[in-house]
Amino acid sequence: MYNRLKVERAEHDLTQEDLAKKIGVSRQTINSIEKNRYVPSTILALKLSQVFAKPVNDLFTLAEED
Amino acid sequence: MNTSCDALNSEKEHKKLTQIIKYRLPHKFKKLGLLGAISIFIFLIAYKYLGSNTLLVKDVARTLMLLSLLIASLSREVFEDEYVQHVRNQSYALSFFCTLVYSISLPLIAFVLDLLITNVSGDGNVNFYDMSAFEVLFMLVCFQLLFLEALKRFGRVQ
């Protein structure tokens, strides 16, 4: 699964730490999602979509192997 | 009626199991558990070199060491979120696999080595290395704690 988290974060001028605080996770979690090492739960994906005011589909896209 | 009762019971069981799986001790227990395990480990080495060899003392110390490691394994991290839970699950799966490989391969390696040495020395007795339950459980918890730390570190790498 691919995500646009890093781009969205830059557009909203947020650091990994800021975003982590907003959705109540650690900076490590945000870093792992951005690096595609961790696929977040639906709850976390919805929280991220709330922060960026965009649908989940705009933030995450399925890869060919998914 | 029966179907709804079954569904209710299975829902209750699922809830209980989830509670057990998610149960964690406070973070301070991690340091406590690790300190306890290291202290007992040092005690066991000292006990061996002092020449004492009471089986009961050894068994009690080993059990306490396993208990300390279990406490460390069950303790929550400073920041426990879903990523840490995911990494923790991975560490349990990896430690199970590694302990299995270790438990199967070590007696085999020891057996082959013993066979070779016995053939060279020619005393005729080949021993099969018997692994104790303590050894297996110790490896299992140690692997879990090490994998958890390693996997957490991957998340920190930018």
Q: What does this protein structure show overall?
A:
The complex is a heterodimer of chains A (66) and B (158). By secondary structure, chain A is mostly helical. Chain A is built from five helices and two strands, in the order E-H-H-H-H-H-E. Chain A has a single domain (2-52), classed as Orthogonal Bundle (434 Repressor (Amino-terminal Domain)), CATH 1.10.260. Chain A is 58% helix and 6% strand. The longest helix of chain A is centred in the last third of the chain and has 11 residues, at 42-52. Chain B has two domains: 1-76, no CATH class; 79-158, no CATH class. Chain B is extended and about 70 Å long. Chain B starts with a helix and ends with a helix. The relative contact order of chain B is 0.11. The interface between A and B is medium-sized, with 13 and 12 residues.
Features:
heterodimer; A: 66 residues; 434 Repressor (Amino-terminal Domain); 5 helices; 58% helix; B: mainly alpha; 2 domains; 80% helix; 0% strand
Question: DSSP strand (E) fraction of chain B?
Answer: under 5%
CATH superfamily of chain A: lambda repressor-like DNA-binding domains
SSE pattern of chain A, N- to C-terminal: EHHHHHE
How much of the sequence lies in strands of chain A comes to 5-15%
The CATH topology name of chain A reads: 434 Repressor (Amino-terminal Domain)
Q: Uncertain spans of chain B, ≥5 residues at pLDDT below 50?
A: none
* Helix-residue proportion of chain A: 55-70%
Order of strands in the sheet with most strands of chain A: 1-2
* Most extensive chain-chain interface: A-B, 13 and 12 residues
Profile the largest sheet of chain B.
Answer: none
Measure the end-to-end span of chain B: 55 Å
Compressed to H and E, one letter per element, the order of chain B equals: HHHHH
> How far from one another are the termini of chain A?
7 Å
Radius of gyration of chain A: 11 Å
**Number of separate structural domains of chain B:** 2
- Total strand segments of chain B: 0
Number of distinct beta strands of chain A: 2
Round the mean pLDDT of chain A to the nearest integer and report it.
93
What oligomeric state is this? heterodimer
Summarize the main sheet of chain A.
2 strands, antiparallel
